[in-house]
Amino acid sequence: MSSRRRLGARWRRHRPLRTRLAVAASAAVALVAVGVCTAAFFVLRFELYHQLDLNLTQSATLAIQQNRGAAPGVLAGECRFLSAPACAQVVPGDPAKDPSRPYLLPVSPPVREVATGERRPYSTNITLPDGEPARMLTTPFGGTKALQVALRSDTVRKGVSSAAWLLSGVGAAGVLLAAALGYWVSRTGLAPVARLTATAERIATTRDPSHRIELPPGPPDKEDEVTRLAASFNTMLGELEQSVTAQRRLVADASHELRTPLTALRTNAELLARADRLTPAQRDRASAALGRQIREVSVLVNDLIDLARDEEPTPLLEEVRLAPLLAHTVDTARTHWPTTPFELDLSDASATLPGVPARLARLISNLLDNAAKFSPPGAPVEVVLLAGELTVRDHGPGVAPADLPHVFDRFYRAEQARALPGSGLGLAMARQIARAHGADLTAHHAPGGGALFRLTLPAGPAAPA
């Protein structure tokens, strides 16, 4: 049994799913067809022989009525097809009382037992002396005698044989129909899977995730499992296409943003290579510009690395108190932007957030740098922590309605910001850090002018993604 199972498992492993499904469906339908034909054959055979037994019972009753008290011996020796009088003879229970004339029908020990009452009446198939098949009934005749009646069963045997051939043909046709139905079921049922496979192979060959699987029309609640699988695959392809598009856009934007500072670095480096032709003031100015540009490129590259991961690192978390973190970050911003006053309002000094302090400090620092960059000299930047929200407001030109939906996009810079330093990655990184900590960062128009950035803290504990 184990060898058969291993052979079946090996066969399944080396056959495609369509073949296995076709064989399974064909085998199921063929088994039903063969089972029905077999059952019909046995029912028909039983009914034909039952009808013959009824005729034998009638013939036996007639023989008993017409030959009461008859001596042992042959009563009728002519067997007609399914008609009376049948071949009939009386057999005594004691073999010593047998007549001198031989019996026409075979006499066996069970016949003597019926005569003596030791056995119930029974029917059996026999062969007559002339070699023809017959059906014989043995029943008590009275006293210690038994009556044997027989009818030829040619027509019954021919009927059973014809039924066997007919039902065999029907069964064979059923098997062929089952094979055709199995092939049709496998081809129709696995058509979406074939389309899914072809789409996956096309994507693997062309590396283009824009391909989709065609879905049959109909309401979503009437879809079958394969259609839902195809729909899920299309959804996955959509997400993959967005990811690939975002990756390509990031590479394109990064190459565009790096081109200008790298060109400036190359220019200053070539200028310093001819330092013997420069005055001391020119060398100092070129060296300062080179150092500043190196720092800008380093910051830009670090930001690109963080954004390219599209997720936050997951070091050990801790419960971060936002008030001390805000105070420290604002003090640092004051040193970077000495001409911009920062007003800090810690009305909710007990607010905490599970997270990474360095990443949260980076988020707040980016918001403060953005606000200070757009604030006019002397205009304050207002930082308020109140009721589970952190707001950072500046009094600059604000965000144009057309730019508001894109302020958190990578490398996006509004028209009025293109002359200012920066790479357009600060707000994108701030939103990424906020989402990783379960918070929501949004941009708004501030009442009275300026931009307002609102960081809504999560209601319950949150962890970095």
TrEMBL record:
Under which EC number(s) is this enzyme classified?
Answer: 2.7.13.3
Q: Which CDD domains is this protein grouped with?
A: HAMP, HATPase, HisKA
Q: Name one Pfam family in it.
A: HATPase_c
Q: Which residues form the Histidine kinase domain?
A: 253-461
Is Membrane a UniProt keyword of this protein? yes
Q: Where are the transmembrane segments?
A: 21-44, 163-185
Q: Kindly state which keywords UniProt assigns to this record, in alphabetical order.
A: Kinase, Membrane, Phosphoprotein, Transferase, Transmembrane, Transmembrane helix, Two-component regulatory system
Molecular-function annotations in GO: kinase activity
Q: Where in the cell is it found?
A: Cell membrane
Tell me which residues make up the HAMP domain.
Answer: 187-245
Q: Which reaction does it catalyse?
A: ATP + protein L-histidine = ADP + protein N-phospho-L-histidine
PANTHER family in the record, alphabetically?
Answer: SENSOR HISTIDINE KINASE TRCS, SENSOR HISTIDINE KINASE YKOH
Listed name of the protein: histidine kinase
Lineage here is: Bacteria, Bacillati, Actinomycetota, Actinomycetes, Kitasatosporales
